[in-house]
Amino acid sequence: MSEIFYTEFISPFGLTLASSDAGALRNIWFPGQKHAPDPQHWQRADQQPLFSQLAQQLDEYAEAKRQVFELPLAPVGTDFQQRVWQALQQIPFGAHTSYGALAQQLGKPTAARAVGAAIGRNPLSIVIPCHRVLGKTGQLTGFASGLTMKQRLLAVEQTD
């Protein structure tokens, strides 16, 4: 396994912690987010170009000037989690889906809860757009960074 690098910076979404491994993003976290790591064994590398690109793209996204992130990604998870995270990346800017619809799309129609658990472990919040998944009646449901953050991200994507 290669060395993990990290940075902390202020983005439009607050204090942002990001990590990379071999030139690809592994994680992005915000204050109070569930499943946040302890970077004590990582090497701080604030000047890495990848982190500068992330900061710039988060700024552009917050201003609704960017709809798709163009960054190398390397999220770590199970095969099922990887499939869910890949499916999340197919949800267009401003669009929404439900946990059940995503489970159906993955060929696992009875796995809405497992899909929800995989979404809850999404290590690349915003960049892998888990905020675009809503409850089956369109209600806001769990989000690792809290419902206020989810509402904020959805508001960025309102196009009307």
Description:
With 160 residues, the protein is of the alpha/beta class. Helices cover 31% and strands 18% of the residues. It has 5 helices and 6 strands, in the order E-E-E-E-H-H-E-H-H-E-H. The chain has helices at 49-62, 79-88, 99-105, 112-120, 147-156; strands at residues 4-11, 14-21, 24-29, 43-44, 97-98, 133-134. The strands form 2 sheets. The chain has a 4-stranded mixed β-sheet with strand order 3-2-1-4, covered by helices on one side. A two-stranded parallel ribbon has the order 5-6. Helix 3 packs across helix 4. The longest helix has 14 residues, at 49-62.
Largest sheet: 4 strands, mixed
Counting structural domains, the number is 2
> What is the CATH C level class of the largest domain, in words?
Mainly Alpha
**Principal-axes shape call:** globular
In terms of per-residue confidence, which ranges show pLDDT below 50 for 5 or more consecutive residues?
none
Distance between the termini: 46 Å
Question: What CATH architecture of the largest domain do you see?
Answer: Orthogonal Bundle
Helical percentage = 25-40%
User: What is the count of helical runs?
Assistant: 5
Q: State the secondary-structure class.
A: alpha/beta
For the record, what is the CATH homologous superfamily label of the largest domain?
Winged helix-like DNA-binding domain superfamily/Winged helix DNA-binding domain
